[in-house]
């Protein structure tokens, strides 16, 4: 399954971004439910927030699995480190 996701173009960074987004969406779902359904109480808002919040560990797990696959496959992008290394000022001898 991880190879199929990788072949589809999904990278570990995408899964990590989805995990972080689901954490934010969890807060938004909680606040939105609390405001949209004031008669339903905090319990329903909590359930919406928890429901969406449960997505984050799944996305983090997929990110870790994809990262491991990318390391084994040799396609792991170290763009930040590579950029710093490539733009470093050469040392004078």
From TrEMBL:
It comes from the Bacteria. This is Uncharacterized protein. It comes from Actinacidiphila oryziradicis.
